[in-house]
Design brief:
six-stranded parallel beta sheet; alpha/beta; Dihydrodipicolinate Reductase, domain 2; globular; single chain; nine-stranded mixed beta sheet; binds nicotinamide-adenine-dinucleotide
């Protein structure tokens, strides 16, 4: 059991791309867990749809294997697995064939009263085709919900095209753009911390905060995604969506209520206040890197993507500024990269030092208070404060983390739900709060595009960094120029 369970209304969920990696690794395990927790009503059905030529029995077998692989053995009670597998069906449809949609219509029309969720777990090139296909056969109904995932465009122009292709069929109120970072418990806790406590909000501004660091470090390389990754790079794959979304939640003004559009309006204002980075400012405020070992057989980005001339970055650090009253002068340092020394995602809010030290010369310096919001490996919040080191013999201070881990205080069987569990159930409920609106996606690209343009115009190559390291030296130097240091990358 992961939380208080409020069952949702009966639904039919169609996974376009039902045999793919996203479906097998994330969506089916998440749906299984919600079902095992009793949130999915008996009548709900799940349909895998893909161009793989197979029947429902073969799909069920694949789904069973996916559960074995991606769900902990102790969660897989035989009863829960059987109940879940019974919900599954499969249709072999190539969505580019306009004559092939009849079976989907028949399947969905068996339960006209159900909420319909169309989850597009296929490449974005098919989003428009599927939206149009659904409209052509009368399935783009008012009750229907369309779910799409990154990459939502390659630049501003393609993002606008994608939004237009979707909005020509579906109303914005029916479109759910997933950024799974927003489904993380800690990210929502950031909002609880800010807006359900009187303690932090008075400190949440340029008067008290020195700077913010947002890090998404990966220890793995590009793996089997090399082909795609080399056309995107760290800025498109991570910054445009995940890191900027975290920045928005951290920096936004309190929404007038916790409602999808109120919240998204505030995020949009942050995006619009991001100081544009163009031309030479890009070169001084960003650092790009590529992992590259020294020995001939060492791991290298260029080898992993099979492109010896690639100028795509596997690491990026950006110093961003938000030009508004609250954040004037406070830098937001964003960094993300592959093949770094540990797998870690965190937001660190670094407060200013006390105005005056009453303690005179101390052996240990007074460290600034830091609030860390950790997304992985262990989701949780910590507030670092200075305390007196206990014991006689002089007055020493030490930096102590006040741990606010969420799992504590819960019963033994509690587990942290996966982001997809919450997000899919939110789609069924019709709650868009944790999903991106089209104008947010476009505003993010509007800020990102000139950065990429400036790199391309400079002709500069990303700086090499050692696999398993903290990233390029130039990123450390960028911080040092501001008299600051990156936080350690550690699991
Ligand atoms: P995948 O290649 O593993 O699966 C693609 C699926 O689409 C397959 O089921 C395939 O049969 C189906 N498909 C392709 N063309 C089709 C057609 N014409 N008609 C019907 N079905 C068709 O890809 P994936 O890794 O599952 O990713 C799917 C999408 O989700 C991509 O856009 C990807 O960028 C995005 N995404 C994936 C992940 C992930 O963890 N895998 C995470 C975030 C976003």
């Amino acid at each position: 059991m992961s939380s208080t369970v409020i069952p949702v209304d009966p639904f039919d969920l169609v996974i376009f791309g039902g045999t793919g990696d996203l479906a097998m690794r994330k969506l089916l395990p998440a749906l299984f867990r919600r079902d095992a927790d009793g949130q999915i009503p008996a009548a709900a059905r799940i349909l895998g749809l893909a161009r793989t030529d197979q029947d429902t029995e073969a799909f069920k077998l694949e789904a069973r294997e996916a559960l074995q692989q991606h769900v902990a053995a102790e969660e897989l009670s035989a009863e829960a697995v059987e109940r879940f597998i019974k919900r599954l069906s499969y249709l072999h449809i190539d969505v580019t064939d306009s004559s092939a949609w009849g079976d989907l219509v028949s399947y969905l029309n068996e339960r006209p009263e159900h909420i319909r969720v169309y989850y597009l777990a296929v490449g974005p090139a098919l989003f428009g085709t599927i939206a149009q296909g659904l409209a052509n056969v009368g399935l783009a109904t008012v009750k229907a919900r369309l779910v799409v995932e990154k990459p939502l465009g390659h630049d501003l122009e393609s993002a606008i095209e994608l939004n237009q292709a979707i909005s020509s069929v579906f109303n914005e109120k029916s479109v759910y753009r997933i950024d799974h970072y927003l489904g993380k418990e800690t990210v929502q806790n950031l909002m609880a911390l800010r807006f359900a406590n009187a303690l932090f909000e008075p400190l949440w501004n340029a008067n008290r905060i020195d700077h913010v660091q947002i890090t998404a470090a990966e220890s793995l390389g590009v793996g089997s995604r090399g082909g795609y990754y080399d056309t995107a790079g760290a800025i498109r794959d991570m910054v445009q969506n995940h890191l900027i979304q975290l920045l928005c939640l951290l920096a936004m003004e309190p929404p007038y209520k916790f409602d999808a559009d109120a919240l998204r309006d505030e995020k949009l204002k942050v995006l619009r206040s991001l100081r544009p980075l163009t031309g030479r400012a890009v070169l001084s405020s960003t650092v790009r890197g590529q992992y590259m070992g020294h020995e001939a057989d060492a791991e290298s980005y260029l080898k992993d993507v099979g492109n010896p001339d690639s100028r795509t970055e596997s690491y990026i650090a950006i110093k961003a500024k938000i030009d508004n009253w609250r954040w004037s002068g406070v830098p937001f340092y964003l960094r993300t990269g592959k093949k770094l020394r540990a797998q870690m995602t965190e937001i660190a809010v670094v407060f200013k030092e006390p105005a005056h030290s009453v303690f005179g010369d101390l052996e240990t310096p007074i460290m600034p208070n830091v609030l860390t919001i950790r997304l992985q490996p262990d989701e949780g919040l910590q507030l670092h404060i200075m305390t007196k080191d206990p014991g006689p013999g002089g007055f020493r201070l030490r930096d102590i983390p006040l741990d606010m881990s969420f799992a504590e205080g819960r019963e033994g069987s509690w587990r942290m739900p996966d982001a997809y569990e919450r997000l899919i159930m939110d789609v069924v409920r019709g709650n868009q709060t944790l999903f991106m609106r089209g104008d947010e996606v476009e505003a993010a690209w509007r800020w990102i595009d000139p950065i990429i343009d400036a790199w391309e115009a400079s002709g500069l190559k990303p700086e090499a960094y050692d696999p398993g390291s903290r990233g390029p030296i130039a990123a450390v130097e960028m911080m040092a120029r501001d008299g600051r240091r990156w936080r350690e990358i550690e699991a």
